[in-house]
Amino acid sequence: MTARTARTLTALAMVAAFIFGLSVHAPSVEAAVSGVDDEERAAILSLNQERAAIGLGALHVSPTLTAAAVWMADDLAARDLLSHTDSLGRDMRERFTAFGYPTNSAIRENVAAGYETGQAVMQGWMDSSGHRANSLATDVTALGIARVYSSSSQFGWFWVLTFGSVRDTGTVPIAEVTGATPTPTPSPSTPVLPAGTPGTGTFAGDFPQQGVGLLVWNGGNLQQLVAATQAGGAASVWAGAGGRLVGYTIGAPAFVNASFIAVFPDGNVPKDTALLVVAK
After folding, report:
1. pLDDT tens per residue, range 244-262
2. How far apart are CA 120 and CA 86, in angstroms?
3. In the chain, ranges of CATH 3.40.33.10 domains
4. Given CB 3.0 to 4.6 Å as the disulfide criterion, which of 50, 107, 115, 134 pairs with 121?
């Protein structure tokens, strides 16, 4: 049995006990937290670095918050959607309580889909004001995390990050949490870009420091365009196609950027193409 399987079974067992009214003891750290894989660990480390940068303490890993995150990630993947209400109709408070987390605590939750790596999902959350507020909240001390892959989903990866103000029994620093067998990567997160013909590879104009800016491309291929967008500190670049805007988001999975790449099938972005650039 893999660590992730054991972790999921622990979560399901607790749900069954809750439904049938049995007495449930908090799961052990080994049972509930030992399944943190490399990318989940990377997300936690990135989060704690962001918190340390503004003088906040590191969040420790809670077994009950982890179990709640695992169950919710599986639930979201099965339904192929993002929500804070699970398939049993429970909100965050009800779900966290079902897994044994103290009821007299402040709680928060981030969910996401489509991100393969821990660094990418944390960047996505930090770029969103609401998720950033949860991540940098001063009223939380513990967390749980889970990512699940669904081959039948339009998103692929689903992430859940749970937060709480209480370090309940078994909560430990991330350094004390054992690793898990790495989850196989089912598909590349970085799109394969057509080679095209190299050109100037620059934009005319200055990148916006915030919001959206309209820039003109000086010519070059898609690889140069993506590199120039990233070098300019932008989060994404957008082009007009068939009366609508399609975008390329830096660090997003291949399926997210497929429509943008399809606009330039030979890999070349013509000189004087007007593009919208969105700042981070």
Report:
1. 888 888 877 666 777 888 8
2. 25
3. 29-176
4. 115
